Amino acid sequence: MLHVGLHHFLVVSSILFSLGLYAIVTRKNAILVLMGVELVLNAANINFVAFARYGDFGASGQLNALFVIVLAAAEAAIALAIVINLYKHFSHVNIDEADNLKE
Questions:
Q1: Which sign does the torsion angle of CA 46, 48, 53, 55 carry?
Q2: Least confident of 13-17, 64-68, 89-93
């Protein structure tokens, strides 16, 4: 019988974090970069909950994960408003040309 321990959660979290970081660094599409940010935040949530479960921190890990979920929802709303504005001006969502919005 396989016992799922802290190590398993940390491996899954590191894979998610690596995939999210790869998506943030290599993509030019703003929507795909936002998806990478969400992967990084979900990796942090897995760590919070896993350390709360195996580290005897009580409910603090779950509360921190809930705070990160609320933060991710606010970030997604603001970022999507920026992406819509970018699409309205340039008819694409290439983040390399996002600095032209200053003008």
A1: positive
A2: 89-93
CA 88 remoteness from chain centre? 25
Q: If you search the block for the tokens 């580290």, which residue do you land on?
A: 55
| Residue 88, both tokens | 């309205």
Q: Under 8 Å CB-to-CB from 84, ≥6 apart: which residues?
A: none
The domains found in the chain, sorted by start residue, are 6-102 (1.10.287.3510)
Indicate the pTM of the whole model: 0.82
First to last CA, the chain: 62
Tell me the C-alpha distance between 74 and 14, whole Å: 24
